[in-house]
Amino acid sequence: MASSRPKTEKIIKEEIERIKAYEKAFDVKMPYIDENGDVQGLPEAYPREINGVKRSGYRLTELGRQAIETGKPVQNPILGRNSAQETFEESQHMYDIAEKLGISLFQFVHSEATRHIDPLDGLELIEQSRGKGGITPKGEREFVKMGGGAKHPLRINATGDTTHLNVINALIAGFDGTDLGPVIHVHFGGRGIHDFRTKVANGYKALQICAENNMFVQLDTHKHINNIMGTDGMALAMCLLSEGLAIKAGLDRALSAIQMNVGGINVLADLALIKAYREIIWSEFIVAVPETFQNPPADLIAEQAHFARMAMTAKLAGANFYRPKAAENVGIPTGNSMAKAIWATQDVFNNTYRMEINDPFINARKEEIKTEALAILTAALERDTLLQPEEITEEFWKSFDDKELIDLIVEAGRKGILDAPRAGGWDLKRFVKTNRDSDGIRRYLEGYTPCDVPQKHMPITKDNVKAEKEYVVTKKEKVLLATVGADAHVVGINMVKEAIQKAGYEVIFLRGMNLPETVAEVAAETKASVVGVSNLLGMGSTLFPRVDKRLRELKLRDDVVLLAGGRLAEKEEEHASYEEKIANEGTNFLGVDAFFGPGSDVTKCAEWIEEQLKK
């Protein structure tokens, strides 16, 4: 190893057993420690030539600045298939359309879901979840050797338990950048098997590695807090805390981006949102992503009208990068469909006149977002007086000790200062209730604002809505719910949970990423009468029968109603064939009593449970 990178070397030495487990789990050569105690096998920091191309996070810096000069966001399409060959072949469709349009892309290569799990402590979950969600660590390296990233810079998603190991693999492979989400971890603590503290601490290690090796980082995300019904100000507070860690890690702000949703419902609200972030964040770049929970038409052509609204907002707001969306109802799009989405999006960028909109609503809403964020930040950092934007400087963050800052973040999650209604972390307090008002803005219900934060600083809903009464348990039977496999998607199962609670049942909710056998065993311990499992990665036909098998081994199957949901295949056409099989043959091949796929009415699910328990 030629250059000295003391933080990276220290992390490798501390985590060598996990690194060995990563090497074994994913069949990739990783750095090691020689007989003298020195780190070997770590490539040079960026900039570094790989497969004939000099890679560096600063390739993305140049693209992000180019967007400001041209007034057109650089597109950030997502495409990652399970094998390198398939990823490369599908990517050619995107590269070809980019060539015709004369644009450069910032490609987001989506990784296999196994990457979210600690390879030392969660090997069994990794083994049972292979082949879903995107490219493998080995495929990541092969993809670059085939030519991936030669013209269009790359990033890989590295969120989860061991982000620091994933960024080491990305550095070896030749990816220019990554995304971490060290504070909120995509679904606020829910992706991976470890507790919130471990994830934040490992996210900080990943930031140190990125800083020393000049990797571009999508640091944190407003998008995923929006997904789990969090507010804009809450997301901003979390992004600011992530930036504090990034500054402590030594990251260059020219290598840092914040990911944001644009909803396209209220143009003024979207403009205010991005303006608020621009005025207060430290990161140089914004990656705008269209909101995906608005149920657009499930058709590639029809849904472009839906996404065109958001592409227009992203341009008007001056985003640096924009993620085109394609084939919304399919987990991983084809290269051809993504190429069409790129074409459509660029047409919006080229033909939308860039204007400055100065409606008073924008400034009012912008200040509302900033006030909320600063009030939450003040409580999280245990300050006595309300922090002001001008106080949030690099020097401010550097005044914290590393461990002190991590401790404050973790405690803020545990106390309910950082909160969102559908957060995934099992060790976080959940209290807030929110409502998306008719103007498209999500605000709190009165009396349900973040804990320990003065309500006077929080936006309160303007709609005439009241909090539903706390669920009253009126039924004697218990219902156990969980996702199985390496699946952290908890939005759908949260909706099912709420419907079942509303029907009067006590729900034991294990959230994301569980072994099928564990779910059955918890059912035995808790004496649950109903077990509901979900998997959105298309692995239900493999995983659901394992719940059934374990329940039979425990001699409980005759006493338990077992239902399942999610997707039975990643690709739409394959999932449809499973739905047809269920319609013709029933659900015996899944080992469950009923299956509720995408689009199911959650109240019907609760009604079905009621009927089954009466039998």
From TrEMBL:
Its cofactor is adenosylcob(III)alamin. Residues 476-615 form the B12-binding domain. GO terms for molecular function: cobalamin binding; isomerase activity; metal ion binding. Gene3D superfamilies: Cobalamin-binding domain (3.40.50.280), Methylmalonyl-CoA mutase (3.20.20.240). The keyword Metal-binding applies. It comes from the Bacteria. Keywords: Cobalamin, Cobalt, Isomerase, Metal-binding. The keyword Nucleotide-binding does not apply. InterPro entries: Acid_CoA_mut_C, Cbl-dep_enz_cat, Cobalamin-bd, Cobalamin-bd_sf. NCBIfam families: acid_CoA_mut_C. This is Cobalamin-dependent protein.
